[in-house]
Amino acid sequence: MPDVEQLSQNFENVQRRIMQACEKANRPVESVQLLAVSKTKPIDAVNAIAKLGQTDFGENYLQESLQKITERPDLTWHFIGPIQSNKTKSIAENFAWVHSIDRLKIAERLSRQRPKELPPLHVLLEVNIDNEASKSGFHPDEAQDICEKVLALPNLELRGLMAIPQATDNVEKQHHAFAQMHQLLEHLQKKFPNAQLDTLSMGMSGDLEAAIAEGATIVRIGTDIFGARNYS
Ligand SMILES: *Cc1c(COP(=O)(O)O)cnc(C)c1O
């Protein structure tokens, strides 16, 4: 059983950090949404955090997430992990959001496989902002072209961008990557003024303050809510 006392303390701490970062950045606290990343954590831990008012949860691994979604279909589930083609159908059927669109083919499949009775799937383009060879995501230069193509897909609602910058303790470097993401989103908003491109998913346990200072609208927090993971 999870330590509910500890979880609620963690949750309060994260909420306080978000509030303070918003204050410092002169942003309303409602402009930043907390996504609780529950990957590898049991449904009991999800239930404990949901009880505190949290509605949105992020998952990376399809198999374990489907069990949790079956138990809590009332919550809003975001898929944030790497996507293999053979997983798109199940993702299209079970999630409200997908943050990790890193190939056009994945977006096309999700659109085709989104059940007609569900609202459009909210999606974000993952950007490889540090241009790391090991990382998935579009190169920033590709973003406009991909954006145009994804906007044309019928059953998806493209909402913006997501990034996982290189982990670093260097606060200046954190700000730099997030600021580049903000600029890229602004560029796309100008190019596609009729699209609802209002979302920047960036910032994790170690860098949520920098992300909020640079305009994050969703921060994805795992460790600092649920504790360290046994596997990643
Ligand atoms: C695991 C994960 C997170 C949460 O990271 P923490 O450092 O544990 O807060 C956020 N985003 C993605 C894409 C992840 O895979």
SSE blueprint and pairings:
Layout lengths: L3 H21 L8 E5 L5 H9 L4 E4 L2 H10 L4 E4 L8 H7 L2 E5 L2 H10 L7 E6 L16 H9 L4 E7 L8 H21 L7 E3 L6 H6 L4 E4 L1 H4 L6
The structure holds pyridoxal-5'-phosphate (PLP).
What's this entry about, in short?
The chain contains nine helices and eight strands. An eight-stranded parallel beta sheet has the order 7-6-5-4-3-2-1-8. The structure holds pyridoxal-5'-phosphate.
Features:
232 residues; globular; eight-stranded parallel beta sheet; 9 helices; binds pyridoxal-5'-phosphate; single chain; TIM Barrel; alpha/beta
Give a written overview of the molecule.
With 232 residues, the chain is of the alpha/beta class. It has a single domain (4-226), classed as TIM Barrel (Alpha-Beta Barrel). It has helices at residues 4-24, 43-51, 62-71, 88-94, 104-113, 143-151, 171-191, 208-213, 223-226, and strands at residues 33-37, 56-59, 76-79, 97-101, 121-126, 156-162, 199-201, 218-221. An eight-stranded parallel sheet has the order 7-6-5-4-3-2-1-8. It is globular and about 45 Å long. It starts with a helix and ends in a 6-residue tail after the last helix. Bound molecules: pyridoxal-5'-phosphate. Pyridoxal-5'-phosphate binds next to strand 8 and helix 9.
